[in-house]
Specification:
It is built from 7 helices and 9 strands, in the order ββαβαβαββαβαβαβα. By secondary structure, the chain is α/β, with parallel strands linked by helices. It has a single domain, classed as Rossmann fold. The structure holds S-adenosylmethionine.
Length: 261
């Protein structure tokens, strides 16, 4: 009988537990708010691409088969947590490298700009093509999610005028159209890896390190590996962290087979 069947909450240990590490991938079962976990984030990484809990506790019919997501009850200041991940104010070499990009699902530029020290923000839209059943009391069935893009500046003076902002490698429209995952649900808010790949490819180069503190089912990591980048992932819930490892191993096997071509 598993802890899940007995409905026992398994907490990650302080500092987390590395469930998988290869040359390209690190997956930690841990709490991304834990300073001991944050201390393990590699310095001067290349991209923060993440989808933290939205803090609204709302569950669509689609996701009711899962428990409410951890940290989704509105008690966690997620922009402040992500601020720790890009590196606290006054630090230069901790966290994300200077003038690199941030992409955060579900939070707007107003909430994110100050704690993450962003400039040149833009709202991107993931068009999910198929509307969800969602909140049926609304006249509109939601079929999109907002993603905030921004450039992280270590120096306030650079931030003020957006000086030195890296341009995206591929300049394209701000709507990314790709159907939501269908079939057997593995995670209530799984993002298609293809959407994450589009984001990652436009803001990084081969070999860059992509970081996601709220990995969920691991789609950010899968996209990073399939596009020749590296990833550093943290997930709180043990079963999702294990799913992330399983998917990352599969992605690495695909890349290994492609190298043999
Ligand atoms: C919106 S989901 C991410 C979904 C993911 N983008 C995907 O494609 O599967 C947010 C995730 O953050 C995790 N989470 C919540 N609190 C956390 C914490 N303190 N540390 C790490 N992960 C956390 C939840 O368990 C959930 O899986």
């Amino acid at each position: 009988m598993t802890a899940q069947m007995l409905d026992i909450r398994i907490q990650p240990p302080p500092g987390g537990e590395v469930l998988y590490a290869s040359g390209q991938v690190t997956v930690i079962w841990g709490d991304c708010r834990d300073p001991q976990v944050i201390a393990q984030v590699p310095r001067e990484y290349g991209l923060l691409a993440t989808d933290p809990p939205y803090g609204i506790g709302y569950r669509s019919n689609w996701s009711k088969q899962f428990d409410q997501l951890e940290g989704d009850d509105g008690t966690v200041d997620w922009p402040a947590v992500l601020g720790e991940w890009v590196g606290p104010d006054g630090t230069r070499s901790i966290g994300m490298a200077d003038k690199r990009h941030v992409m955060v699902f579900g939070y707007d530029a107003e909430a994110l700009s100050k704690p993450l020290r962003l400039s040149a923000t833009t709202e991107l839209i993931w068009d999910k093509v198929i509307p969800g059943s969602g909140d049926v009391s609304s006249a509109w069935a939601t079929s999109h999610e907002p993603i905030t893009f921004g450039v992280h500046f270590k120096r306030p003076s650079d931030r003020k005028d957006g000086r030195g902002a890296l341009t995206a490698r591929l300049r394209r429209g701000s709507v990314i159209r790709w159907p939501r995952p269908s079939g057997v649900l593995r995670h209530p808010t799984e993002k298609p890896w293809q959407v994450m790949a589009q984001l990652i490819e436009s803001s990084t180069v081969l070999g860059d390190l992509v970081v996601d503190p709220c990995a969920g089912s691991g789609s950010t990591g899968v996209a990073a590996i399939l596009t020749g980048r590296r990833c550093f992932l943290v997930e709180y819930k043990r079963e999702f962290a294990e799913l992330t490892v399983e998917r990352l191993r599969a992605a690495e096997r695909i890349v290994a087979r492609m190298q043999a071509v």
